Amino acid sequence: MVARFLFSALLAIVPGTTLAQTAAGQDDIVIHDRSLPDRKAAQTYVANISVRSDGQLARFHQPVCPSVIGLSRDYAAIVESRIRDDAAAVGAPVAKSAKCSANLIVIVASDGATLVRDMRVNRPGWLTGLSSANVDALTVPGPARAWSITSLRNEDGEGVGAPRGATARDPLGAAPAFRIRSASIVRQPNRQDVEGSFVVIDQAATVGLSLRQIADYAAMRGLALTRPPAPGGTTETILSLLDVAAVRPRGLTATDTAYLRALYARDGLDGAVSERNAIARRIAKGK
C-alpha cells in the first residue's frame, strides 16, 4: 500500500516556480458544450482519457482539499474555490473548512519538467508509488503534467494493517494483513483510493487562460486519474485546454462533468474495464 504522507509541506516555496501575477484573468460568463456524445463516442472518450491504477479507476474517498502554488494569493483563492465547487458538483467529498490538509496540489511552475526532476532528487516522497518510467514521463517537456498518490483499500476503506511485532516464537513478526470482507466473482474486494493529486502547469501555458479554465483543467486531472486525449478527437473536453491545435473549452464540458459524476457515483470496487463501460453508458444517457 502506498503510505499516506503529509501534503502541507508543499505549501513552502517550491523550487522552479514563480509567482504568476498576470498569467490569467477571470471570466464571469462561461459557455459550456451542452451536448453529450452517443454510446460509441462516449466509450472512445472514456477509454482515451482514463488512466488505470492497478487495474482499477481511482478516486478520492477522503474530503478534497485543494491548494494552489505559483499564483498570487488572490488568484490562488479563486482557483481553489472553483475546484471545490467542481468537486461538490460531481459528488466528490469536499473538506468543510478551507483550513484543511491539502491533498489536491496545483502548481504553476516556470518549468514543470525541471520541477519534477528536482522532486526526484530532493523530494522523492512527493512521487511516492510512481515507477521510474512514470517519473521519466513526467520530465518530458510539455505544458502540463499530473499524477496521483493512491493506496489499496478494502470495501470498508481499510488499508493494509500494520505488521505484528516480533516475539520469541515469531522472531520476524507477522506480515501486514489485508482484510477482505466479502468474496465475489463479479466484483473485486478492494479499491484504489486517491490520497493526493498533483497538477503542474507551466506558467507560459497559462497566458491567455481564465482562472476558471485553469481550475476546471486542474479539477479534471486531479479528481480522477485522467490524461489529455490524442489530438483530433471528436469529443470536446477541458483536457484539451493546453493543446494549441484544439478548441479550448471555457470550462468543464458537459461530457467532462458527466464523466466525473459517473465516476463518483460508483464505489470503485469494479475493474477498470467494467467501470469504463458503466461510465460511458451513464454519459450517453445524460446521467
Structure notes:
Mean pLDDT is 84; it is low at 1-24, 27-33 and 162-167. The protein is globular. With 287 residues, it is an alpha/beta fold. Helix content is 30%, strand content 13%. A four-stranded mixed β-sheet has the order 2-3-5-4. Strands 1-6 form a two-stranded parallel ribbon. β2, α2 (73-89) and β3 form a beta-alpha-beta unit. It has eight helices and six strands.
Please describe the biggest sheet, giving its number of strands, its sense, and whether it closes into a barrel: 4 strands, mixed
Q: What is the oligomer described by this structure? A: single chain
| Global structural class | alpha/beta
Which term fits the overall shape? globular
State the share of residues found in helices, binned by percent.
25-40%
How are the elements arranged and paired?
Elements: E1 24-25, H1 39-49, E2 66-69, H2 73-89, E3 104-109, H3 112-122, H4 132-138, E4 144-154, E5 190-202, H5 203-206, E6 209-210, H6 211-222, H7 254-264, H8 272-285
Parallel strand pairs: 1-6, 2-3, 3-5
Antiparallel strand pairs: 4-5
Give the structure's gist in a few sentences.
The protein has 8 helices and 6 strands; from the N terminus they run βαβαβααββαβααα.
Descriptive keywords:
disordered N terminus, globular, 8 helices, single chain, 287 residues, four-stranded mixed beta sheet
